[in-house]
Amino acid sequence: MTRKEKEKTYSTEELYEELISFLDEIKNEQTIVEGTKDKRVLVSFGFSNVHTINKNFYETAESFKGNLLILTDFDPEGEEIAKKLSLLLVKFGCNVDVSSRKKLRSLFIKNKINTVEALQKLSPQKI
Domain containing 54: what range? Predict the structure, then answer.
């Protein structure tokens, strides 16, 4: 049996359901996104503690405490923002949820999206 034969294939609906289910699991986490459109999309999925990044990463990092999820886009720019912001947040004593970000990256890729805003095509509500 080849590796390809061992891999399970999923329908588009199953991939969508897996992503929606995970979003539902993490919707109460303190979450940081790149902008107001991203925030609006997450709120449509039931997220209640979503914050946008200030232009000054230092000011953004300084304003947070506790556990948080950085949900910037999974394009090169978003990945760079997440990396820089994560380093600052850790310096200020925050716990950055890296495992949820990794899982979301994988789920976004499976659903053929790489931006938070692209979630709106999957949104249960019109935005």
Answer: 28-116
